[in-house]
Inverse folding.
């Protein structure tokens, strides 16, 4: 099945049927909705109470899983390793424990060699109260992720949570074999508030929600090739996307990175002078680009398939 | 040390490293290791989509050239460029691509070393210096994840309170010593001695097969007490479950 057909097959009917929103769900609910029933087994679960050693210094509450859930499960019968961030705890931010769990999981994936990895991103980036540990955790995760990919292991990212996927989380996402994103799943390095704080409201008005969505949101990322599959906000859609992308993960090597280099250089050439996402969409060939933010998922999927075929060999 | 002094000390026999639009590129020759490729960021320049694409192109060219030419990454940068244009174009993909190219080069036998001689921060740090196998620094380098005033705004704690807390833990405050304690920095070089000899020594000591041991280093240096153990436990549980 092509990505396009899959996108069209996993539609809004499932969303209303299952009635469960990925965006509204907790990390544990997402794992429940994504994996085969009763297949999930957690590593270092909350009963072990491994918490951040640094948050007490700031008199901040800890969480028994530090906002990162890692384990194994099955997707359509196939064993997978999974990691899910809880965006409602510290904005899903990477701290020492939170990050080390994912590092350990990816190193295991590299050594096992036959179990793909799913990462359910929901993060504002580095946890500033433990900024150095978080920054370095991201570097270690990237290294382990790429070593896993080099060993032939697909690593697929799913993005559609409340906290989006910002900062170092955006860099990790960019290192995955493939990504699925929903409209709500913003992907960016500098968040809207960070740009406004550093460069002024003239550069980026973080209170302009429409601007945030069309610059960083899932529709734009799908259209420019920042994500391979656009999912609606349902568990079923993310489940279908994960299954599809695990089968279409590019190998990690010189050929793939040469292809990515061309893909990214072409993007700068084509869209580098654009002032706004609407200009990008117009160049892509959208007749009425200003209507894209309001398009229902099914209509957007049809348009996206027409404007830009996703590539599966250049990430 | 200034960039010119660093290049002279690194390459006593001369070099062809040029600076253009804040980016460094070229080659030099180390006394023992021989020819090395040089890339980098100078003058506290930000790293946006254009810069990341140019740096990545150079790394891929080294890989394409074959051989085992080491890659030296010299860094005095700002953070990632914070702008609407860069995010509109997908900066996360560009920075990730640069990190991927550096790690690909390493896995294909090109030793990668970063020398931090000034500032760096956030996404620019992750995509450059932190994506090399060995991160070296010169005294006076001032890496940061985020500066204290910005951190103060986000955490809603005063700068005075943050400075006080920084005395008891290296885990959040900016600065070379704090990052070194967490395991990010392998060694701080001696600017009074030949940089060429010191970098040659590092290259000679790099094992053929790399193991990322920054979390172990952070534990030994007491800057990151738990990361190595947690990663090890998860690794063990996952491997045992197969």
């Amino acid at each position: 099945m092509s990505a396009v057909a899959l996108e069209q097959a996993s539609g809004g009917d499932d969303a209303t049927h299952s009635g469960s929103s990925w965006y509204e769900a907790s990390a544990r609910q997402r794992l429940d909705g994504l994996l085969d029933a009763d297949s999930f087994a957690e590593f270092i679960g909350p009963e072990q109470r491994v918490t951040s050693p640094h948050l007490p210094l700031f008199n901040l509450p800890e969480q028994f899983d530090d906002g990162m859930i890692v384990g194994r499960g099955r997707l359509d019968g196939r064993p997978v390793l999974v990691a899910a961030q809880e965006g409602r705890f510290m904005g899903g931010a990477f701290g020492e424990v939170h990050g080390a769990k994912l590092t350990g999981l990816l190193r295991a994936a590299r050594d096992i060699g036959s179990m793909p990895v799913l990462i359910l991103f929901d993060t504002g980036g580095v946890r500033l109260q433990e900024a150095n540990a978080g920054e370095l955790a991201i570097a270690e995760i990237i290294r382990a992720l790429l070593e896993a990919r080099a060993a032939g292991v697909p690593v697929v990212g799913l993005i559609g949570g409340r906290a989006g996927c910002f900062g170092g989380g955006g860099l990790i996402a960019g290192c995955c074999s493939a990504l699925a994103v929903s409209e709500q799943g913003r992907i960016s390095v500098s968040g809207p508030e960070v740009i406004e704080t550093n460069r002024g409201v003239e550069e980026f008005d973080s209170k302009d929600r429409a601007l945030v969505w069309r610059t960083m949101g899932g529709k734009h990322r799908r259209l420019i090739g920042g994500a391979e599959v656009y999912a609606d906000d349902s568990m079923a859609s993310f489940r279908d996307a994960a299954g599809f992308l695990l089968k279409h993960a590019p190998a990690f090597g010189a050929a793939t990175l040469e292809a990515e280099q061309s893909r990214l250089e072409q993007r700068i050439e084509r869209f580098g002078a654009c002032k706004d996402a609407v200009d990008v969409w117009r160049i892509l060939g959208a007749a009425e680009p200003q209507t894209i933010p309001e398009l229902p998922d099914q209509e957007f999927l049809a348009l996206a398939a027409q404007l830009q075929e996703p590539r599966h060999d250049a990430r | 040390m200034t960039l010119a002094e660093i290049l002279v000390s690194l390459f006593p026999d001369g070099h062809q490293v040029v600076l253009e639009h804040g980016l460094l590129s070229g080659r030099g020759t180390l006394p023992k290791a021989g020819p090395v490729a040089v890339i980098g960021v100078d003058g506290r320049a930000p790293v946006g989509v254009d810069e990341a694409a140019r740096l990545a192109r150079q790394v891929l060219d080294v890989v394409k050239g074959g051989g085992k030419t080491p890659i030296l990454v010299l860094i005095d940068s700002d953070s990632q460029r914070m702008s609407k244009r860069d995010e509109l174009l997908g900066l996360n993909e560009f920075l990730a691509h640069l990190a991927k190219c550096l790690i690909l080069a390493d896995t294909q036998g090109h030793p990668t070393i970063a020398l931090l001689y000034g500032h760096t921060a956030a996404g620019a740090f992750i995509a450059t210096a932190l994506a090399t196998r060995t991160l070296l620094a010169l005294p006076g380098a001032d890496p940061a994840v985020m500066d204290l005033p910005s951190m103060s705004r986000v955490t809603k704690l005063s700068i005075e309170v943050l400075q006080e807390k920084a005395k008891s833990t290296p885990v959040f405050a900016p600065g070379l010593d704090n990052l070194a304690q967490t395991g990010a920095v392998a060694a701080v070089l001696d600017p009074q001695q030949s940089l060429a000899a010191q970098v040659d020594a590092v290259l000679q000591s790099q094992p053929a097969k790399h193991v990322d041991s920054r979390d172990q280093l952070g534990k030994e240096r007491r800057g990151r007490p738990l990361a190595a153990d947690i990663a090890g436990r998860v690794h063990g549980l996952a491997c045992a479950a197969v």
Q: What stands out?
A: The first strand of chain B starts at residue 15 and ends at 20. The domain at 3-139+189-210 of chain B is CATH 3.90.226.10 (2-enoyl-CoA Hydratase; Chain A, domain 1). Chain B touches chain A through 81 residues (CB under 8 Å).
